[in-house]
Design brief:
Elements lengths: L1 E3 L23 H17 L9 E6 L4 E7 L12 H8 L5 H7 L7 H12 L6 H4 L16 H9 L7 E4 L6 H10 L3 E6 L12 H8 L4 E6 L8
Parallel strand pairs: 1-6, 4-5, 5-6
Antiparallel strand pairs: 2-3, 2-4
Amino acid sequence: MLVTLENMRFVERKNGWAYSHFDAWLTKDNLKKWMRLANFVKENENPCLSRQIGVIIVDPRADVVVYTGHNGPPQDLPACDDSDYLQRVVLPQLGSDELKHAVEDMGLTEKERKDTFVKRYANCGTCPRKLIGAPSGQRLELCTCIHGETDAIAKAGRNLSDCWMVCACGVPCIECTKVILESRLEAVVALDHGKGTQADYSPHSSRWMFEKSEKTKLILVPSDWPINSD
């Protein structure tokens, strides 16, 4: 199910609780508070070389944060600009056009380009996907990072069927959406940057999946929603 702020029915607190039309405890104040917390994670816990993403999983009825998530490599793995990773994982997967995009030096043979690629970009602080000009959401197999949404679910270690995920980012990518739906989260709050924008990973497939889900609702919040005001 897909829900927007325009068709949500907030009600005032009564005896300390607030009810919404989809059976979760919710007020606008809580929603803004959770989004601010997700933004805090985004700004303070992100080893990803490409994109800063902050995610929190909350129990909305108890108003408790269950776990947080961010983009970054799994434990014990280096960032994707590690020289050994570039040599052994990235290079074997690059097509000739991708390699030429990253190493534009004229007159080099393919072997020389490969040697130059590793020497030039080892520990450069840039994701290999950006080096080859991959569009947003594509060639994810070249990166060591997992997305914040999957990171939060993996670390939560509990049944999430009564929980919400709040994302300081656009609609989750298709792979994260699959994990989200399988985890049976009650709802996902994400920023609505509009279909087709770079900030919306999967403007068609992810939204379609949420629309089909009978359990997990996607709540779209305007990307310019003033979360720091009343």
